[in-house]
Amino acid sequence: MRDRESANRKARDLLRMAVAKARLLGPVAPLTFEPKRSCLIVGGGVAGMVSALSVAEMGFEVNLVEKAGELGGTARRILNTLNGQDVQAYLDALTGTVREHPLIRVHLDAEVIESRGYVGDFTSKIAVRGDGKITEVGHGATIIATGAVEAKPQEYLYGQDSRVLTLLELERDVAAGNTRVCGVQTAVMIQCVGSRDDERRLCSRVCCSQSLRSALKLRELNPQMDIYVLYRDMMSYGLMEDRYREAAEKGVKFIRYELADKPRVTAVEEEGRSVLRVMVRESALDRLHMIDADVVALAVGVVAGQDNREVSRLFKVPLDEDGFFLEAHMKLRPVDFATDGIFLCGTAHYPKHLSDTIAQAQAAAGKAAAILCKKKIETGVEVAFVNAEECIGCGICELLCPFKAIEVVSIDQGDRAHVISASCKGCGVCSSHCPRRAIGMHSFGDDQILTQITAMATGKVEQYA
């Protein structure tokens, strides 16, 4: 930056190269088309319904596809937030509004079985289970909101002893006033079950606040109950830290353990009654605690839905190593896929709280509407093109294209590659790997690139026009 002579020499080289290339450029007309003014949303949980309602309120038609027989997803099992908000009341109001909206068409017990096209011009087929009915819909944008599910633990006697529950099962029994959890002497909650270990490295984010909520509710219902929370790290970030302090002040006991020395749970007979004996070593004091519990609640991880891989294949969008959908860029494009016109939101992306889910669903709806509201969509001009006479239809380009912008189609001459210009980003992967050199790039032809190299090396332009 301080070597002005070298900087000027570099600037002259770059300018000379640009002029050399510009002399060989030809006209390239962009493709323009009118987008289909409707949106397909896959998943009818909170994220799917919020995004559907947001898009519909902006005046665009929505097809909302849900594989279950009712809307709501996993939120149907959540009763309250940590701040005391009634999730079921919110869910009922949201579901009613979505069902009654004239621009939203809800498909229950349904799934997307086929999808093709590109930004502004998608076509998908929706199949309803049972009756075999298939509906084909056109849409300009797609939102993936397939949600996530509660993991089923394989440890701590879960499934073997009815007193071992997951947090969602505990919350259900607390709301019902079940005496097997509300009237007991001792309750133990174990955090990070099936999360942050070698098998599943991610933190499920919602477990700590859910344990705090359950502990405070149990303390409210039974002030004499001994409540223990066994944790590795309490992720009560933001204003949830106040609820953590509140729980500690009300007598909830927090004991920290290490991953290498997990708690152990066994069923034993003690003084004529059957208890769940929990052995846990407190890492700070290196002290072994023995707790005889009447109920043990497991804060299990949140895992990606089993349908994600099929949805990933249908819409040609990527998954991360944990099976959640992978955004284009976590900071700059947090609700976008690399494929234009397809967006994601909610726990299909990663585990998150209800408020985060709603915010991301609204963001995805805004991005989708930005496409649907356009009068015309104009594709880029620096895209790939195929020389059909040289192409042998080998499919290497279709396999390697990161944007799924190439497909092999059958024409009179046989199988040939076809470029979907609206999806192509001009990266050049197809052109560089074509064994027949049948794919070129507008504005990046071999002669143009070689001319730039020669102009830089020789310092001349005229003879390379």
Query: Which strand order spans the largest sheet, edge to edge or round the barrel?
Result: 4-3-2-8-19
**Mind summarizing the main beta sheet?**
5 strands, parallel
The low-pLDDT segments are none
Q: What is the third-level CATH name, the topology of the largest domain?
A: FAD/NAD(P)-binding domain
Question: Which CATH architecture of the largest domain is right?
Answer: 3-Layer(bba) Sandwich
CATH homology group of the largest domain: FAD/NAD(P)-binding domain
Mean pLDDT: 91
Give the helix tally.
12
Any idea what the radius of gyration is?
A: 29 Å
Q: Which labels suit this protein?
A:
single chain, Alpha-Beta Plaits, 5-stranded parallel sheet, 465 residues, FAD/NAD(P)-binding domain, elongated, alpha/beta, 29% helix, 3 domains
Write a structural description:
- By secondary structure, the protein is an alpha/beta fold.
- The protein has three domains: 4-32 and 378-464, Alpha-Beta Plaits, CATH 3.30.70; 35-149 and 303-372, 3-Layer(bba) Sandwich (FAD/NAD(P)-binding domain), CATH 3.50.50; 152-300, FAD/NAD(P)-binding domain (3-Layer(bba) Sandwich), CATH 3.50.50.
- It has twelve helices and 24 strands.
- The chain has a five-stranded parallel β-sheet with strand order 4-3-2-8-19. The protein has a five-stranded parallel β-sheet with strand order 10-17-11-12-13. The chain has a three-stranded antiparallel β-sheet with strand order 5-6-7.
- The longest helix has 19 residues, at 4-22.
